[in-house]
Write a structure and sequence with these properties.
The chain is mainly α. It is built from ten helices and no strands. It has one domain (52-198): Tetracycline Repressor, domain 2 (Orthogonal Bundle). Helices cover 80% and strands 0% of the residues. Helix 4 runs antiparallel to helix 5 (73-87), helix 5 runs antiparallel to helix 9 (162-180) and helix 7 (104-131) packs antiparallel against helix 8. The longest helix has 28 residues, at 104-131. Residues 22-41 bind DNA. Keywords: DNA-binding. This is TetR/AcrR family transcriptional regulator.
Length: 199
Amino acid sequence: MKDKIISKASKLFLKIGFKSVTMDDIANEMCISKKTIYKYFANKEILIEKTTEAGLKEIDKIIDEIISKNFNAIEENFEIMKMFKEMFNSIETSPSFQLKKHYPEIYQKLISESENECNLMFKQNIQKGIEQGLYRKDINVNHYAIFYQVLINYINENICSEKESKIYELNALEYHIRAMATQKGIVELEKNLKTHILH
């Protein structure tokens, strides 16, 4: 039951908004009593925290699956971006923006937990691109991973519209890859940009 509540609450939070959804809404959607929800979650903040943790784990799992498919470094970035686009396609307001605005403590905890994993993923992708001849050998991997992370964090924190944030994220990815790419990498980037825009 606990997992079912997290799953249903997660969908409602993303569809309607973390602030707008009440415990009554979740109970009504699940045809259960509010008392049942409080049996597992003492308050709405704890439920939000658990749904964001579960969401983060699900995203990590999907990213691992994408990485395991052995795309080249540039394709991998676009596949991950495509996954996020599909996952949040029907959402109006950026989940990160909502959390930061209404539940800053939960947002900060989420950022802290995801920051190290994102940084590691970015570094691994850059290293992979260098080995594949798509990114230049002379770049500082740590610095470029941090530069990209700062860009993505800024977009997530400051762009309210989910649709608009995806456009900014695509531009940030192009900016990030162009800064690192070899001539071979530029050709691969242009190919992926065309495919991404068409779909």
